[in-house]
Amino acid sequence: LGSRGWEGDYRTMLDLCSHGANACFVTGDFDSMNELIDEVLSKDIDTKEKYRVSDIKVKSFYSAGKFNESIDAALDFNRQLGLPTPQKKPASTFTIIREFIRVKRLLKNKTAEDIANLPELDNELYEMGQRMNEYLATCIYRVEPTMLPLIVFQS
Question: What is the distance between the terminal CA atoms of the chain, rounded to a whole angstrom?
Fold first, then answer.
């Protein structure tokens, strides 16, 4: 479709680049994968539509052992979604305890059954953020373990 593909058939180009990036990731062609990811991320499109390539980007950094880059990419994507995102720095004991108390207050008088009976999450942005936090938690634990409680409490 070439450089004009985005103008002519935006949805097809997004799908081709996203699926192509995933195929390149799976086959280990990281140079082509990065080109396709950068192609999508450079477009002025809704952040939700950039999720697939952002997900691949985070996973590729993780699989290459580039945990800091994976953390940066995941935190950046969550910020773009407008979700609460901690800064990438060691968390103080005070900050961890403050967040723990905040969550404990939110769960005040809730039983395990109450929590289990909560409705399914239906906000697409939060679902994307939750999935990104799954990768983030694994990387954070390796690089800066004191941040892990903040990721959990803010999820």
Answer: 39
